[in-house]
Automatic annotation (TrEMBL):
Protein's name in the database: 15-hydroxyprostaglandin dehydrogenase [NAD(+)]
Domain of life of the source: Eukaryota
Keyword Protein biosynthesis: no
Function: Catalyzes the NAD-dependent dehydrogenation (oxidation) of a broad array of hydroxylated polyunsaturated fatty acids (mainly eicosanoids and docosanoids, including prostaglandins, lipoxins and resolvins), yielding their corresponding keto (oxo) metabolites. Decreases the levels of the pro-proliferative prostaglandins such as prostaglandin E2 (whose activity is increased in cancer because of an increase in the expression of cyclooxygenase 2) and generates oxo-fatty acid products that can profoundly influence cell function by abrogating pro-inflammatory cytokine expression.
Species per Swiss-Prot/TrEMBL record: Oryzias melastigma (Marine medaka)
């Protein structure tokens, strides 16, 4: 899928990895709706992206992904502005073992919620153009991150949802591919401010720090560039792309149904 003339929705777009995903999509010719709860960061990012990539190429929409109503309104506005949606990046996420129910709500429930709303606009069965949905999961969805069990559960859930939806979409004829990015640690606000966020696992802070030293830390742009192959390569469906500092690999899973 070439990106010129395509339109994308990115959640959690105002900072960190979401900002990087949005920039790479714009650089490659797509228009991007930037969804985020952070209004000031989202507005100023939209202004700078429109200066760089052309007026009207980026649209900021204030949206809390936990709200079905706000998500529906944002998708509707994106469709009205850009004429349709071809790409959804479900990227908004938090790591907070203290507020663990919120972590489940944002990282897993909202990914499912946004994917289902996107189907209403993107599925060929609903008159949409088809396209691709890419979730920002994590290495934590592949190997356990013991300092953050609930975060690990949400990301494992996202990988499972993505793989099941890929097959469901294929056999149903939605015309939508589902893939997941699974990066190791990335240099963003999320890893720099964890005080109070590990809850009953605060005593495992040192273990988390050691893991960052062992695995290394990716830059946002290294993750963002990896989005391109999942979006443009039409053969990629149901993939979990592991991104490490040493390189990338598509995960192999056991096939139990054949
Ligand atoms: N930083 C890391 O080491 C890694 C992060 N990830 C995942 O990448 C994704 C992005 O994380 P980062 O950029 O690192 O985090 P970040 O904290 O830098 O940025 C997250 C963005 O999401 C927005 N956001 C948070 N809650 C929201 C909500 N309810 N509705 C709408 N927007 C919301 C924030 O305002 C912020 O702009 C997350 O899903 C995270 O789990 C995956 C692997 C590693
Ligand atoms: C010292 C600061 C750590 C803060 C961590 C905060 C957020 C991390 C988010 C992630 O998504 C982390 C990504 C990768 C690590 C997860 C699992 C590693 C699996 C290790 C293994 O191979 O067993």
């Amino acid at each position: 899928m070439a990106l010129t003339g395509k339109s994308a929705v990115v959640t959690g777009a105002a900072g960190g990895i979401g900002k990087g995903l949005s920039e790479v999509l714009l650089r490659n010719g797509a228009k991007v709706a930037l969804l985020d709860v952070n209004e000031s960061a989202g507005q100023s990012l939209m202004e700078s992206l429109n200066q760089k990539h052309g007026t009207g190429s980026a649209l900021f929409l204030k949206c809390d992904v936990e709200s079905e109503e706000q998500l529906r309104a944002a998708f509707q506005k994106a469709v009205e502005t850009f004429g349709g949606i071809d790409i959804l990046c479900n990227n908004a996420g938090v790591m907070n073992e203290t507020a663990w129910e919120k972590t489940v709500s944002i990282n897993l429930m909202s990914v499912i919620r946004a994917s289902y709303i996107a189907l209403e606009h993107m599925s060929k069965l609903n008159g949409g153009r088809g396209g691709v949905i890419v979730q920002t999961a994590s290495m934590a969805g592949l190997g356990p991150f013991p300092s953050c069990p609930v975060y690990t559960a949400t990301k494992s859930g996202v990988v499972g949802f993505t793989r099941a939806m890929a097959v469901a979409s294929e056999v149903s004829g939605y015309g939508i591919r589902f893939n997941a990015l699974c990066p190791t640690f990335v240099q963003t606000e999320m890893i720099t401010n964890i005080s109070g966020k590990l809850g009953q696992f605060t005593h495992l802070t040192g273990m988390a720090v050691k893991l960052t030293e062992k695995l290394g830390i990716l830059s946002v742009s290294e993750v963002a560039e990896s989005l391109l192959e999942l979006v443009t390569d039409e053969t990629k469906n149901g993939e979990a792309l592991m991104i490490l500092t040493q390189g990338k690999a598509y995960m192999q899973f056991p096939s139990l149904s054949k």
